[in-house]
């Protein structure tokens, strides 16, 4: 065997082994790099979507805040107007002042009626409700509350089926 050829054979085998190991490493690390690049792209896309959602939410909450402040302002205006109207309605008319229209007279009567209690009089005047009838017949008798009629032949009888 020639020692010069052994060196060449060892060099060629080493070169082939190195190429094989390099190809396997490139496959493994190249795929990982492609995957990493894809994940970075997805992360950037998700970040952009999140920023769009944040801007939309900020705009939404600012609009809701403005609406609430408008409602509160209108509520204060309404409350102020109700207070003014109530004070206008509760002021008493001077003794010598004449009411000019029937509408003013009607509103004055309504105000006077609103100050009075709904039921006047003694509680003794109103009889207590009862669940029984006077006498021995009772509420379940056939002739309770009916007046006796003298002529029973004139009363039409309902048809029988």
What does the model show?
It is built from two helices and no strands. With 161 residues, it is mainly α. The longest helix is centred in the N-terminal third of the chain and has 88 residues.
Radius of gyration: 51 Å
In what range is the share of β-strand residues? under 5%
- Shape label: elongated
Number of helices: 2
Spans with pLDDT under 50 lasting ≥5 residues?
A: none
Average pLDDT for all residues = 77
Largest sheet: none
Secondary-structure-derived class? mainly alpha
Distance between the termini: 133 Å
In helices, the fraction of residues equals: 55-70%
Strand count: 0
What are the secondary-structure elements, in order, as H or E? HH
Q: What's the topology here?
A:
Blueprint: H1 3-90, H2 102-115
What's the short story on this structure?
This protein has 2 helices and no strands.
List keywords for this structure.
single chain; 161 residues; 2 helices
């Amino acid at each position: 065997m020639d020692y010069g050829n052994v060196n060449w054979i060892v060099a060629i085998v080493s070169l082939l082994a190195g190429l094989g190991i390099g190809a396997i490493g490139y496959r493994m690390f190249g795929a990982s790099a492609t995957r990493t690049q894809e994940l970075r792209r997805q992360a950037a896309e998700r970040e952009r979507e999140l920023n769009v959602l944040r801007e939309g939410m900020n705009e939404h909450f600012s609009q809701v805040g403005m609406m609430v402040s408008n409602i509160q302002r209108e509520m204060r205006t309404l409350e102020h107007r109700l207070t003014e109207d109530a004070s206008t309605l509760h002021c008493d008319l001077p003794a010598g002042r004449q009411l000019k229209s029937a509408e003013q007279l009607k509103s004055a009567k309504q105000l006077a009626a609103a100050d009075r209690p709904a039921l006047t009089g003694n509680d003794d005047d109103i009889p207590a409700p009862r669940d029984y009838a006077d006498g021995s017949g009772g509420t379940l008798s056939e002739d309770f509350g009916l007046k006796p009629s003298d002529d029973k032949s004139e009363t039409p009888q309902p048809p029988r089926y």
